[in-house]
Specification:
By secondary structure, the chain is mostly beta strands. About 5% of the residues lie in helices and about 40% in strands.
């Protein structure tokens, strides 16, 4: 709630994202048997802030560093789909099928501690990721 936790993710998205940006579209979270998040068209919804920075581009795919300032359900997935660059494998948000969703929780900083999880080998760019 006080935005004192710093969370970094690595995502590989469909399409080319050349510039870093901050996505602030509010989210409408619908929970039932499973969660599905949409972007609020009228400005209502929960505040969500996602900062993205391209790390690498290969073919028509972009590897991103993603920092979330808020921690809402499916925030990264919904925000990237809103930009028309869904995470590879994330069929719920419009991406083509893949063997997995290419989103990795890379690091978290909380209470003066930093925990890091190196990205798996799937996150090393090759010509064919899917």
């Amino acid at each position: 709630k006080q935005m004192q936790v710093i969370k970094h993710y690595i995502a590989i998205t469909e399409g080319i994202i050349e510039e870093e940006c901050e996505i602030t579209a509010p989210l409408l979270i619908k929970k039932g048997r499973f969660a599905k998040v949409t972007i609020s068209k009228n400005g209502e919804g929960q505040k969500a802030i996602t900062h993205i920075c391209p790390l690498e581009i290969s073919g028509k795919k972009t590897k991103l560093n993603v920092e979330i300032k808020t921690g809402k359900t499916h925030q990264i997935r919904a925000h990237l789909a809103h930009l028309k660059h869904p995470i590879i494998g994330d069929t719920l948000y419009g991406a083509k099928p893949s063997y997995r969703i290419l989103l990795h929780a890379h690091s978290i900083e909380i209470l003066g501690y930093r925990f890091v999880s190196p990205p798996p080998k799937e996150f090393i760019f090759k010509e064919n990721l899917s």
